[in-house]
């Protein structure tokens, strides 16, 4: 009788264990995940807003020291840089047939100067894999300067390294058209201001407003 | 001449500084230059075109750096791709 009861108890325990095991495993796993997530959230991420702001200030000073006064003013006022394309018939500069808009940490957008027609997006990044502060991302103005240097130095190489897409993949085409209109207005305003002040425009070779992009209305 | 490097979370840092006409300082500049290229950086020299427009020149060796250049700026090499978010 005792032996039978003992055997039944053992069998019952084994059966209960087998039934409960999957549930216990799941519970343990989810507890482990929750604990890991909690630990990650509690750990310092390395992001320091003050440091990033100081980094951006340094980057802006470097950008300012490298580009023309006119280009710096464009970036300061509008938030992007325009670089003339150099592979067209007119060459780089006042007679370029196409140009690029450089946004921080966004694809470079190519467009036709005469019509404002958007040509392509060139997705390119400059990741620093050493991640000195946990991020591979350069400050915004350093990213713009890196694109500007690479484009003005070796446009073909940068375009070759980039992933080319049709307009609209990452940058909203309406936003770009608005930016081109803002740029045209900005250039007209600047030309007017300089004309009234009767002072020469820095980077005189680039003083032409974008042709035909200003909206009629 | 100053060798600068763009750095995430910091802005540019000065890697080396010296006079290229002083052999010892030039050697230090060359060593720092090579270290950065070996680390996969691109090197650019801010210049001005004959028309006075500012631009940059990518250089692959110290010999290509104009002797009168004030700065060489190192930045991570370009890689295709960007965050997939709409502007």
Average pLDDT of chain B, rounded to a whole number, is 92
Helix content of chain A: 40-55%
Question: Uncertain spans of chain B, ≥5 residues at pLDDT below 50?
Answer: none
Q: Give the end-to-end Cα distance of chain B, rounded to a whole number of Å.
A: 38 Å
Gyration radius of chain A, in Å? 29 Å
Number of strands of chain B: 6
**How many strands, which pairing sense, and closed or not: the largest β-sheet of chain A?**
5 strands, antiparallel
Fold and architecture overview:
The complex is a heterodimer of chains A (217) and B (87). Chain A has 217 residues and is an alpha+beta fold. Chain A is built from five helices and five strands. In chain A, strands 1-2-3-4-5 form a five-stranded antiparallel beta sheet, sandwiched between helices. In chain A, helix 2 crosses helix 4 (140-161). Chain A is elongated. The mean pLDDT of chain A is 85. Chain B is an alpha+beta fold and 87 residues long. A five-stranded mixed beta sheet of chain B has the order 2-1-5-3-4. In chain B, a hairpin with a 5-residue loop joins strand 3 and strand 4. The relative contact order of chain B is 0.24. The model of chain B has no long low-confidence stretch (mean pLDDT 92). Strand 4 (118-125) of chain A pairs antiparallel with strand 6 (79-80) of chain B, so a sheet runs across the interface.
List the SSEs and their pairings.
The complex is a heterodimer of chains A (217) and B (87).
Chain A: H1 2-42, H2 49-66, H3 69-78, E1 81-84, E2 98-102, E3 108-112, E4 118-125, H4 140-161, E5 163-165, H5 173-197
Antiparallel strand pairs in A: 1-2, 2-3, 3-4, 4-5
Chain B: E1 2-7, E2 11-17, H1 23-38, E3 41-48, E4 54-59, E5 71-76, E6 79-80
Parallel strand pairs in B: 1-5
Antiparallel strand pairs in B: 1-2, 3-4, 3-5
